[in-house]
Amino acid sequence: MEKKDVLAGLAALAQETRLDIFRLLVEAGPEGRSAGSIAEALAVAPATLSFHLSALTNAGLILQRRESRSLIYSADFGRMTGIVGFLSENCCGRSANAGACIPVCAPTPEAANGEKTASPRCGC
Amino acid sequence: MEKKDVLAGLAALAQETRLDIFRLLVEAGPEGRSAGSIAEALAVAPATLSFHLSALTNAGLILQRRESRSLIYSADFGRMTGIVGFLSENCCGRSANAGACIPVCAPTPEAANGEKTASPRCGC
DNA sequence: GGGTCATTTCGACACTCATGGAAATATCGT
DNA sequence: ACGATATTTCCATGAGTGTCGAAATGACCC
């Protein structure tokens, strides 16, 4: 996970509507949710929602797929785990991390296999 | 840790110069670093640095103290841990977090004592 | 192919942000 | 009190962001 990716992710999440969208998608799990359903849930105008969805997509935080007429968005858990890992490693102090942990989502298949995950998991 | 605090923290860190400043202060530990020393290390104009330092301070991410002529800034590790905790809990999926952890800095005295820390530590 | 539904793109607007020079403020040593 | 040092505040400027109505695109069904 490179700094510029983390920066993009933070910028994307540092906005109330987008954070709400992302949390909604995390809650929805891998199946995701259609744009319309998100717009309704958050009471956001379609054009505005689309703007935010593309911001999140560009940041690599969410994925898009089409399902007949609807576009379904879902959270990219691996990316989010990478960001949290970066912050923990680089922004929480490196010497004093003896013991304390924050539980995190299980690695997604893609993260578990290839893609060197820079975040060292504690062996608990 | 409330959503608006997390939002403020993310907004503060979602900017390259500020992320660099914060990482420098994390590296410096509790002793911190003077504004001048930061400006020199990152090659940032004093006025610009001051602008960013106050953004980080307003977000609650760093602390300021005076030491004779210099103002010393240091990272607020408890705050950062809170933000990472929030992201892990709310943005990494809640069902699938069985086992995986990300090591995090030991809680600061203030976090360890009072101030209900919403982030559940895993018992490893 | 025409109608309809779901969503995006375009365009315009108000607003906020990042930058840095110049002036102001605070602290120290003499 | 004065000069030097460290840092902030003030100000102007250019760039970027969030919002949303209206028009365009894509997909389905008959």
From TrEMBL, chains A, B:
Instruction: Determine the domain of life of the protein's source.
Output: Bacteria
**Positions in coiled-coil regions:** none
Which Pfam families does the entry link to? Answer: HTH_20
Keyword list, A-Z: DNA-binding, Transcription, Transcription regulation
GO function term, MF aspect, one: DNA-binding transcription factor activity
Every copy of the HTH arsR-type domain together lies at 1-95
Q: Does the keyword Transcription apply?
A: yes
Protein name in UniProt: Transcriptional regulator
- The organism named in the record is Azospirillum palustre
